[in-house]
Amino acid sequence: MQKLELTWIGKGSEPAVEPRILLHDASKDYGDPAADNMLIHGDNLLALKALEQEFAGRVKCIYIDPPYNTGSAFEHYDDNLEHSTWLSLMKPRLDILRNLLSDDGSIWISIDDDEGHYLKVLCDEIFGRQNFINTVIWQKKFSPQNDAKWLSDSHDFLLVYAKEKSTWRPNLLPRTAEMDSRYQNLDNDPRGPWSSSDMTVKTYSAEYDYEITTPSGRKLKPTAGRCWNTSKENFQRLVDDNRVWFGENGNNVPRLKRFLTDVKAGITAMTLWTYQEVGHNQDARKEVIAFNSESVFATPKPERLIERVLTLGSNPGDLVLDSFLGSGTTAAVAHKMGRRWIGIELGDHCYTHCLPRLKAVVDGEQGGVSKSVNWQGGGGFKFYELAPTLIVKDRHGNPIIDTEKYNPEMLAAAVAKLNGFAYAPDPEVFWKQGKNVENSYIYVTTQYLTARELDHIARDLPDYEKLLICAPAFDIGLGKRYENIDVRKIPQSVLDKCEFGIDNYNLNIVNPPELDEEEWDDAEQ
């Protein structure tokens, strides 16, 4: 049978994204200097590519809230091309996000009707249709929108995929006090509180249609058309074990006792999430206003919604990622819940919203889910900017390394990443700047490499080790001088690895709209 795939203008022409290095800006770090949480400012496709090598297979739970393509997210496109552009925006990002997921991980994507069904098919291709878990319905509004032309939309979707559905299981939701209050101990049973349930069923069986005698001496049979739900012998065993309740006077129809200690530690989540359970848009708005009242982010998500996602999809200490961080909700909730996190945001709201919000979280702010998770403050995060493109054009149009923005250390790290090496300079051996597979190293230099220098390195390189040397120029014949040493010229040797000089792949996405008070009130009615 021929495989059916979603097609659109531009599919198959995904960019060869430059795997840039991340530049640590310690001036914007906050809290515990040992914390490894990461707030990254930059185009999220470039940032995801920057993370891919180091974090592939390490992220337990991904939540993203991409632009919904409602007609206001893009400029200068007609409807048809806008749809194709949106899909072209999503595919390369989802490809990398899948690579980042751990084998026991899951991804949760917020979306609405405009692109939700196309996104489902696209995700089927990327994550595998067999790994689709469910579509969750989130009730985002609590009242009708009276000026709606057709139907007032009251919900968004969350598409849920596992990396490997056959082994992935969601966590249970914690039991509530209301649920536990249904259990009482009317007979002072030493096994603790219990609730009771009917012991008859509608599926009739003559074997299970027998007479019993209550402790008071009353003789009973099931009502017409019903029978007991267990055999006569097992019923007596339950009575002997004090697992049958006949009422305070021992005269009632028997009911099976179910002890609180025997029930699951939590409850299985359903696919309908009401605003009473996980909050609505107005809740999210209030949470954002608490740390930035002058610039209200238009499409935040309530902290309780993200808490539900992270409860089901991760455990304390797990790594959580959001590459459309927006106002910072995912990172804030992950921090409060004891998860490690990586957040990526391109716009200025990385500075105006995410940074102050996460600082407030470290300081122990008590909004959102803080009280429910007993958040007291602590931890910290590090701030990163994307490095500029490695290769630029000189005045003659020739590709050259941007030595004005790249010092030797940055150059070594960037070339190592381009060649698939993890940059990790050896403190004793200067030419071991990075390592790839076992016993394979890289050395990047900005100096001319001579045969004498290469011979000196070769004397210290065991036969069982391999070395890649990248230099701007070198003596003729060095590339074949030693069997276990590969000498390549830069930048020529990396030109075909990716496209350079592109600082964003946002496809003309404008800054997220900010609504004034009146617009917010209209949108939420």
From TrEMBL:
Which residues belong to any copy of the DNA methylase N-4/N-6 domain? 59-349
Read off the Gene3D superfamilies from this record: Vaccinia Virus protein VP39
Q: Which InterPro entries match?
A: DNA_methylase_N4/N6, DNA_methylase_N6_adenine_CS, N4/N6-MTase_EcoPI_Mod-like, SAM-dependent_MTases_sf
Sorted alphabetically, which SUPFAM superfamilies does this protein's record hold? S-adenosyl-L-methionine-dependent methyltransferases
One term of GO molecular function: DNA binding
For this UniProt record, give its keywords in alphabetical order, as a comma-separated list. Methyltransferase, Restriction system, S-adenosyl-L-methionine, Transferase
Q: Tell me its EC number(s), please.
A: 2.1.1.72
Picking any one GO biological process from the record gives: DNA restriction-modification system
Q: Which Pfam families match?
A: N6_N4_Mtase (PF01555)
The record's comment on protein family reads:
Belongs to the N(4)/N(6)-methyltransferase family.
Q: What is this protein called?
A: Modification methylase MboII
Record the organism: Pelotomaculum propionicicum
